[in-house]
Amino acid sequence: MLNPSAAAQVLVVAPTTATLTDKLTRDICALAERAIGARGVFTIALSGGSLPKMLSGLATAEGVEWDKWHVFLCDERCVPESDPESSMATIRALLLSKVPIPASHVHAMAQGVPPEEAAAQYEAQLRALFGGDAPVPRFDALMLGCGPDGHTASLFPGHALLGERARWVAHLTDSPKPPPARITLTLPVIRAARVVAFVATGDGKAALLRRVFAAPEGRGLEVVEDAALPCTLAKPSSGQLVWYLDSAAAQALPMDVMDLAASLHGSLW
Ligand SMILES: O=C1O[C@H](COP(=O)(O)O)[C@@H](O)[C@H](O)[C@H]1O
């Protein structure tokens, strides 16, 4: 019998985006409580796109020790926060402006400097918090999205940054999805996280998810790494991988995969 809290890979399928938001709220609160109990802080990095809206339930969650949270970005578009494309602006509007998190615990990427410099500055921020000698930072949780092309954070199919092994944070100026200039966490950082959680909703993600969960029958929820789909490369090496889907996004998944979905009740941690 599946024990989701112990499984390395977990699938959650909710009937609606509202029920998925509730589940995410419960799970993230439980994970934060566990991290704070163990290490005194909760380090989480968030993505942009459709994700921030799915996290809006956290704004009204009870008992959250916001002063122990440190919020980072998985990636950011190189635009000012006044631009609607800014991921941090969306995250602030939907969540951070509504909760008592200290301003110094919100780690935005620099604006108004060249992308290369913004990436170097963000890596320096991570080194200051996680320890400069660490081979790689270990986030408690990374909340990722995925585009229909399989990109995650700002790691795109076929892009040279998929091979980056030394830097924690990198920049690109040729993103196939606008805007072209972006900053992103690299795969070594993503793979080092304790929990990597993907959130995907809507019909537009169904075909991609069919490809992500393409392991031969009998191999359960295994996500087979496929260089053409960067989201499949974002697997934690010794942590947990969780895919949170609504039923529209999950509609093309094989039945044997759907049968392994975790319960929506309670929390994973
Ligand atoms: O451009 C981006 O896209 C991905 C996926 O966005 P979604 O709207 O399809 O969920 C997002 O995760 C990433 O942070 C963002 O920069």
TrEMBL record:
Pfam families: Glucosamine_iso
CDD domains: 6PGL
Enzyme Commission identifier(s): 3.1.1.31
SUPFAM superfamilies xref list: NagB/RpiA/CoA transferase-like
Catalysis performed (reactions): 6-phospho-D-glucono-1,5-lactone + H2O = 6-phospho-D-gluconate + H(+)
Keyword Manganese: no
Glucosamine/galactosamine-6-phosphate isomerase domain location: 16-243
Keyword field: Hydrolase, Isomerase
A GO biological process held by the record: pentose-phosphate shunt
GO MF assignments: 6-phosphogluconolactonase activity; isomerase activity
Enzyme class: hydrolase
Pathway: Carbohydrate degradation; pentose phosphate pathway; D-ribulose 5-phosphate from D-glucose 6-phosphate (oxidative stage): step 2/3
Similarity annotation: Belongs to the glucosamine/galactosamine-6-phosphate isomerase family. 6-phosphogluconolactonase subfamily.
Function: Hydrolysis of 6-phosphogluconolactone to 6-phosphogluconate.
Record protein name field: 6-phosphogluconolactonase
Species for this entry: Tribonema minus
